[in-house]
UniProtKB/TrEMBL annotation:
Gene Ontology cellular-component terms listed: cytoplasm
Pfam families: Lipocalin
Main location: cytoplasm
Protein name in the entry: Fatty acid-binding protein, intestinal
Transport as UniProt keyword: yes
Recorded superkingdom: Eukaryota
Family: Belongs to the calycin superfamily. Fatty-acid binding protein (FABP) family.
Keywords attached to this entry: Acetylation, Cytoplasm, Lipid-binding, Transport
């Protein structure tokens, strides 16, 4: 699948405003903007493994399309939700366990880059990755 590979963060769009809306304090927002995030994505059928490595943590996330799972963001925010394929996009629909608010994510390949778009409470941000 097109998502397979090693992806290194290149740039962010509106990421600070998104994190602020999520309730992340200024110090953590400044650090997160320079987290040197790297994703290694592999897919076997409906099963995905995403290895995240950054300045803050290293974690392996394993999920199956359409199957609900729990996930913790780097700041400790707990989510529950699913990923599904919609056309050529990987679409995530999550709810925060602390307040029930929705956090949506879309991963897609645009011009050879992996673009992750997040939407929370009307604020949208993008993290753009280049393939290593």
């Amino acid at each position: 699948m097109a998502f397979d590979g090693t992806w290194k963060i290149d740039r962010n769009e509106n990421y600070d405003k998104f994190m602020e809306k999520m309730g992340i304090n200024m110090v953590k927002r400044k650090l997160a903007a320079h987290d040197n995030l790297k994703l290694i994505i592999t897919q076997e059928g409906n099963k995905f493994t995403v290895k995240e490595s950054s300045t803050f943590r290293n974690v392996d996330i394993v999920f199956e399309l359409g199957v609900t799972f729990n996930y913790s963001l780097a700041d400790g925010t707990e989510l529950t939700g699913t990923w599904n394929i919609e056309g050529n996009k990987l679409v995530g629909k999550f709810k925060r366990t602390d307040n029930g608010n929705e956090l949506n994510a879309v991963r897609e390949i645009i011009g050879g880059e992996l673009v992750q778009t997040y939407t929370y409470e009307g604020v949208q941000a993008k993290r753009i990755f280049k393939k290593e």
